UniProtKB/TrEMBL annotation:
This is Uncharacterized protein. The lineage of its organism: Bacteria, Pseudomonadati, Bacteroidota, Flavobacteriia, Flavobacteriales. It comes from the Bacteria. It comes from Algibacter lectus.
C-alpha cells in the first residue's frame, strides 16, 4: 500500500511539473542564466585542484 501511494505521489508531481513547464515556460534570460551556470560548473569541475606533495602524511596515524 505504501509503495502504491509513493508511486501515485511521484506521478502526480511529474504531471504537475510538466503542466507548469508547459503553461509557464522559462524566460529566455532565465534559460540562458541556467545554461551559463551549468557550463561554468562543468568547466570548473574538470579542473584538478589537488596538488601532489613530496611527502604524504596522514593525520592521526601513528607509525
Amino acid at each position: 500500500m505504501q509503495k502504491r501511494i509513493e508511486t501515485a505521489y511521484t506521478k502526480d508531481r511529474y504531471i504537475s511539473h510538466k503542466i507548469l513547464l508547459e503553461t509557464q515556460p522559462f524566460l529566455k534570460n532565465e534559460t540562458n542564466f541556467i545554461l551559463d551556470a551549468s557550463q561554468f560548473l562543468r568547466e570548473n569541475s574538470k579542473k584538478d585542484t589537488i596538488k601532489n606533495t613530496e611527502k604524504a602524511t596522514g593525520i592521526g596515524v601513528r607509525g
